[in-house]
Amino acid sequence: MANINKVEIADDVPEIGKAVLDESSVTMLDVLEEEKELEEEYAAVLGASDEKACTYAQGPVKRQALYSCLTCCPEARNDLTKCAGICLACSYQCHENHELVELYTKRNFRCDCPTERMGSSNRCRLNPSLLQPVAINQNNLYNQNFQGLYCNCHRPYPDPERTSEELMLQCGICEDWFHLHHIDGPANSQRLMEASSEMICSGCMDKHEFLQHYTGLSLKSVNNLNESVADGNVTIAEEVSVCEDNDNKLKSDLDKSISEIMNMGEADEKTDTDNEPLSKKPKLETEEQKSKCTRPIDKGNYEKGPTFWGTDWRNSLCRCPSCMLVYKKEKVEYLLDSEDSAKSYEERGMQKAAAESSYEQGIRALASIDRVQQIDVITEYNRMKDKLKDYLQTFVASKKVVTEDDINRFFSEIRNEKNVEIGVPHFCR
């Protein structure tokens, strides 16, 4: 029988997982909920990246999870030209127990693990056919994140000197991370961050001046936004309606476009040479329309500082030949790619992990056993948790790195203890 001295059954909670333990313990639902949160975080950041194969052979990957190895590239701490980025698989297979800086994701980056940037001290294990390190990736871009530094304050994350929570967000262009209180944004920056899909920092807004023409479509005030922005799904039409200082020209252009669409309906009775109503034929964009620039002329709404954008803002960028040359010159053609953003990457990762999760499996398994078995499972989990905590504490005291072998040894000992207990009779009184 299970030891139920620390267990009591509550009548006001769902049938599954009714065991409530003391403050030092957790319920099985707590375990499963925590597992679910970890799975969602893993799926968002790593789900769309390959954890088994080095991505070097793929060339520059549109977006992938990356790491910077300071063990293999110690000079990178003081010299940005010495930095190197490695893919998810190489972080597991080639740089285990190394000092790695997690970079979240970067765009158009090719794994540096098989290249000369790593020197001769570390060879890529996932590319055994490469007898010698290959030439460095000339088109890779590196910023201070590869040195473990972030924001305008050039501090590490997490910052060992901070005692409060660090709220950070990533610029959609330079991909650096900024503390919310360091971006010189408006007073409601946190609400804007929660409502937006993407942020572009002040430095990038100044560097890419064409973006200043589109700030009429940015999120400028959350006070008037409806509840649909809570999940960041703000359409361009909604953004236009809520921008408190949206310029008159943009409104005029919108009214004109609607009027033109309405006038097209009057041509329904007209036919072409095939005697088919023109309104039923697909309206192809003419070369003249394609070449016409739709970028707003006035940028009077731009206020220096970071800009917060909704979900569809990239779809509003003009694609006329003149603007396309600007994007190419400033090397930001990726802004026209709907799958480039970090949000889109996260969504793909979530879809990839959409198969049944450990949380769902655990909930179903928990529902299939009776209450006494549930208590047994939870008690055993807490026993294992306490033993693991004590085991890991020895590594903290000795300042040793925990390896995969150490973890395997721990669970082997746990299994051996369990096997000893099996077959030893005990009686309930």
UniProtKB/TrEMBL annotation:
Q: Where is the composition biased (Basic and acidic residues)?
A: 267-297
Zinc finger regions typed UBR-type: which residues? 52-129
Stretch list, region Disordered: 264-297
Xref: InterPro entries: UBR7 (IPR040204), UBR7-like_UBR-box (IPR047506), Znf_FYVE_PHD (IPR011011), Znf_RING/FYVE/PHD (IPR013083), Znf_UBR (IPR003126)
UniProt domain UBR-type: residue ranges: 52-129
Q: Which UniProt keywords apply?
A: Metal-binding, Zinc, Zinc-finger
From what superkingdom does this record's organism come? Eukaryota
Q: Name it.
A: E3 ubiquitin-protein ligase UBR7
The upper taxonomy is: Eukaryota, Metazoa, Ecdysozoa, Arthropoda, Hexapoda
